[in-house]
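Hey, sorry to bother you again with one of my protein questions. I've been staring at a protein lately and its backbone has me curious. I owe you a coffee for this, so here goes:
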Amino acid sequence: MVRRERTVRKAADDWQQWLKQELAPLEDYLRSAVNSDDTLIQSAALSLIEAGGKRLRPALAYLAGRIYGADWEQMLPLLAALELIHTGSLVHDDVIDKASLRRGRPTVSFVHGGAAALYVGDFLIGRSLELVAVYQNPRIDRALNRTVLQMCRGELNQERDFFRLSQGTLAYFYRIRCKTALLFAGSLECGAALAGAAETAVDGCWRLGYNLGLAFQIIDDLLDLLADEQMTGKPAGNDLKQGNLTLPVLLALREPGADHLATAILGIRKDKPGALAEALRLVRESDGGAHAAGVARRLLERAGQECRKLPACREREHLAGALHSFDKQLAQLIK
């Protein structure tokens, strides 16, 4: 047991380095995948790809595919499609958020305007569906089409709920299910399906990704509230400033004496000086962050249970290491 825990810790420590090495061939494929005879689309899409990113969704699909025997060449169109769906959704997010920077570079909407950015995002998502059409695999087609449709619903619901103090946690979980968890689930599902895994195994991969995706989004929301700019590369409280009330905030609003926090949040909406700083202070002093971290940890445990059901191999250890790395991140945030 101790030896296995050490193996998982080492895999977690090696996760980022492994990811960079294993997915290196994907970068050239992504550049070729966004080729277009439209110069604006070409330059904008290439800039997005070359800005980098974790490539986490392709990595999950790669792991699931390799666990069940898929080869690298076979997986490339799927891996690229998953990254393009994610990147296209970020372009749309930046239009809604009026963001000027993404991954340290000016956003497409900042450079070319919101309308052009929407078309670039649509192009990336459309190209992703074109890439996976080569497989003629109904489960992959259904998974990605369903994911794209639900991502749109999640974004619309998030915008409708901006600054809505009366919303419950169910509304939050519906949003992150649509926006984040389904693409994580679909990544592992499609990787296993492409490899020809049994339906029960593909379903298990879906559950693993779904729980991981929910946990990932909660951790990301905690980072926005609790981490400093040095850790995240962006100012704290971006979601709160926008009116996106995430799980730690919603849980803090349930606590006795939360009227001060509600007042501060409404002050943000009215651009009241100091309101964001006050709301951040009140959330950080509450138990909302700790309770949200507990939820994320339980979701990671569920993902870990599904991971342990997978065939034993090096790729399963890397997947377990990835889960452990997210748990470590939680521990650093909530001390």
Notes: The CA atoms of residues 293 and 330 lie 7 Å apart. The first strand starts at residue 101 and ends at 102.
